[in-house]
Design a protein that fits this description.
By secondary structure, the chain is mostly helical. The protein has one domain. Helix 3 crosses helix 4. The longest helix has 23 residues. The radius of gyration is 14 Å and the shape is globular.
Length: 92
């Protein structure tokens, strides 16, 4: 699965300042490029996903603390169910 370098517009990003949204877009482009290169080298998508989640969560804990990170992660199941992380969903 190749990662897209385009950040989908989701409700959570609508309220983000333009500068921050642009920085996140650039960051996503770097991650997508590294992800796609690793897949081209034969690394499995599931292994990449686990490593990416581990890196992201440990970074969040380091910069924002365990409580903030845990509260953020607690919101993910509902956001996933509502399609915020589905690149194939249609936006209306």
């Amino acid at each position: 699965m190749k990662l897209s370098k385009t950040l989908m517009t989701v409700s959570g990003f609508d309220a983000i300042a333009t500068e921050e949204r642009e920085e996140r877009q650039v960051a996503l482009e770097y991650v997508a490029e590294a992800w796609n290169e690793a897949e081209d080298d034969g690394v499995a998508s599931l292994a990449l996903a686990h490593a990416s989640l581990f890196a992201a969560i440990t970074s969040m804990v380091e910069h924002h603390g365990e409580t903030f990170t845990a509260e953020l992660i607690a919101t993910l199941p509902e956001r996933i169910r509502h399609g915020e992380y589905n690149l194939m969903r249609s936006l209306q």
